[in-house]
Design a protein that fits this description.
By secondary structure, this protein is an all-alpha fold. It has a single domain (12-113), classed as Four Helix Bundle (Hemerythrin (Met), subunit A), CATH 1.20.120. The protein is built from 6 helices and no strands. It has helices spanning 12-18, 23-31, 38-47, 51-67, 71-85, 91-113. The radius of gyration is 14 Å and the shape is elongated. 34% of the residues are buried.
Length: 116
Amino acid sequence: MTEFVHEFYINEEEGAKRIMNTTRRYAELLSKLKADTSLSDLQAFIAAKDWKKAQAAAHALKGIAVNLSLSELANEAQAAEARVKEQALTDEHLAQLKACFDATVLEAEKALSSTM
């Protein structure tokens, strides 16, 4: 991986430090981001008005983003979690979170492809 792809989305150096300075393990975890279901779970729970499960899904997404040093996604997920607690997460907020997730996945794929 390059040292930083786009610091806005992915801070690889910080992420590797969180995984005991193991760049290879960090890359393995980053490669699993696209398959994570936290966002789709959040969307489904919001649609069902299951706020408790929605909060858990938002919290899970935030945790993944924080642990992988995906700063923008972490910020968006944290904001979503706060809105869920207030039962005030709108379709617009979900769309913004999804756009950030998709952009982060794209950057992760770029980072991972540069290592091969």
